[in-house]
Give the backbone structure.
Amino acid sequence: MQKSVMQAWWDSSHMAGANAAYVEELYETYLENPLEVPENWKSVFDALPKVEGVEVESNHTSIREEFKKMAALGPAARMGSSSTSSDSVPGDEKQVKVLQLINAYRFRGHQHADLDPLGLWKQERVRDLELSHHNLSENDFQKVFSLGSYAVGKDKMALGDLFKSLNRTYCGSVGSEYMHITDTEQKRWIQQRLESVEAKPTIDREAKIKILKGLIAADGMEKYLGAKFTGAKRFSLEGGDALVPMLKGLITEAGAAGAKEVVLGMAHRGRLNVLVNVLGKNPSVLFDEFAGKHDDSLGAGDVKYHAGFSSDFITPGGNVHLALAFNPSHLEIVNPVVMGSVRARLQRRACTDGSAVLPITIHGDSAIAGQGVVQETFNMSQTRGFSVGGTVRIVINNQVGFTTSNTEDTRSTQYCTDIAKMVQAPIFHVNADDPEAVAFVTKIALEYRNKFKRDVVIDLVCYRRHGHNEADEPNATQPLMYQKIKKHPVPRQVYADQLLVEGVIEKHEIDKLVADYRNALDHGACVVEEWRPMTEHSVDWSPYIGHDWDVAYDGSVKKEKLVDLGKSITSFPEGHKLQSRVNKLYGDRVAMINGEKPLDWGMAENLAYATILDDGTDIRMTGQDSGRGTFFHRHAVLHGQTDAVAYMPLQHLHDKQGAIEIYDSVLSEEAVMAFEYGYATAEPATLTIWEAQFGDFANGAQVVFDQFLSSGEAKWGRLCGLTVLLPHGYEGQGPEHSSARLERFLQLCADHNWQVCVPTTPAQVYNMLRRQAVRPMRSPLIVMSPKSLLRHPLAVSSIDELANGVFHNVIGEIDDIPSEKVERVIMCSGKVYFDLLEQRRKNELNNIAIVRIEQLYPFPQKEMDEIVEQYAHVKDWVWCQEEPQNQGAWYCSQHHFNQSIPKDAKLTYAGRSASASPAVGYLSVHNQQQKALVEDALTIK
């Protein structure tokens, strides 16, 4: 029998029986958050007919479970007849409304929570939280309803009691946002923790006294500094005092759960207080810093509220090592630095789940919403190369940020923490004047992080008793708020009064605690009871201290070893089919290792990594295209064409080799490079490499170069061996893909703070990388790496050049040109050398020598002098570069060039004219310029 048109449509419909479960699951997701389902399905659900009087439909799963329970009660109870007892469940319609009410509080209760200590927040009416919105009223308060999944420990409850319970749980001192999470297990877990105690667990006397001591310490520290150093900047914590007992509790709980290290990152607000009252910095040292006393041997130094610190902290699980990261004024940039440091520490401990090291980042309310590196760091949090098992993120929310008096000027969202929803992190808003609520959410946050290995946010809603700093006058921009603050008791007093009412403590006991803390500060000794002297928690940096860039080292590798390693890194499983171009490239590499072809850049670079791994040294490399290389040259990671399985030959040298990680990073420069800086500062024994896709992309990470990499040692004594590969060279690709801005890095050079190299041959890159790993020195290495040179027929090397293990800081003339015939010497760096060499050979010039400077900083004066000595008679010296005159090395290194040439010689410039743009946009113009600068350098006038 032929099917009807309607039946045929139904059988083929996406709503047919076979898809019913899938559709129901989508619909339940739609009910919780319509934006979480695909747009086409949202349209379908939006178009469904509405039930009269029902604005928000309830989740079907909870209703289905409820009906199962009701079925066991018997017919009378199920029908809600008048013959049921007083605790029976009423009719179906109101039961559904009650479940909707519970769901509404889970979703939106935070909008009516008591979060602002000052009581200034004007909360908008949320109708979802009103009984009338659900066709309920106080007339129903005595009626008993089933609670569904509401985890208060009962199956049924009178509506009046339930309504009070919901308000206590979701509208008290804690406002919880977690229903945006799509994972049901995580939501149910949070519900259980919150609802089972109505967001207010029982706290014993000992815990209360600990909290009070923390508040006394926080308050006492600020008052002491304010009296002793009136007007001095300290970025006080006053108003957010709960941070101190919060952090101490968090560290204690972390140690009890098995953590061995905690790494903290925070900006200025409250930093000095945390240093003294949490990490145990000696107060007398801080007072000396305020008084202007310092150790001249510490280098340039930095202001007090940028300082880092390390100590040990006793917990029920043993000592926990604490490290507060150094942080400049770019407030949120420290967050990825902390993550990188944590990742290194986890790998050193062979911990794969994040349990051994806890990252804690402390943010400002305006900064977390306003600075893009926060988004970048959130985005990295669950990726393979950058995950750390979750981070506890705390916002010191003083409600004004810097001096802005209206949140409309600081963000476009309701909460400053809304950015965290991009990774579905739960957010716990908490009133900082309720330190027990703070302790409660802190415990939940840590347990959530440890269980689910994901980020979690605590929004500590407080206030700022003074201005942005102590010299600032806040009444100028927040008059009403500061009138209220002046009358508002400090957190210590608020909590002490509460404990007095509860009978937990007597007034004289409180006075004694305050006096004891003040006396401890007067004596200048450590005021943290849990402080312990540091033991072997951190890596040993002593082998790397006190060495300069020219320290002696042996980087040689026997040729036979290179051949063996070369065979290993050109081998892969038989069934691992390579893409055709990659397969040809690996065939060429086999020929190279067999001596049939000279080594190109990619082969030499991979051999460098192989020898470093063979020595037992670990390697970490990240970048947006690091596995294959942006310019298709590296191919350290081989992707099988039939199964997409990735195979890395460098991981399969032998059983005792070092470990290697190569990850293609998220599309970020700032956060990723900051992460690698943090990693390198925590793990000196690993060769850590960050590679920009194009050198000019480093612009996005400029704050990391300026504030950390170039000056971290001078400011904070922090050594770092990070290697940075920045593709650089003028091939006519326009202004955005030519220059790595060499001039910026040279401008930052001083005190041998880092190395800037421009290698031009495969042997040079091989020996440069080996030198960076082998030398007992850890200083950043900035590399202007090539693009066209990766396949240039002249940019090749022999395996013998690799084996000798020498990186040449300067390379003299390679052609057979007698020095006595030389009338002009051209100095240069990078790709332009080969343009000059080819044109000189073409013109058959034998009176011009070319000297390559492969390391521009620290300038290799000794090697330069040895090469220049043979040209002492030459008066005509030229510096040739591809970059415009105001860029490249000309302005920043000219003094080194002049110092190197004979005293009566003259140095001139050959290159592009000064330009506001790094390069021209037209290939034809580029070629004209390139030809002209080469001719200029080779023409003796």
Notes: Residues 205-228 form the longest helix (24 residues).
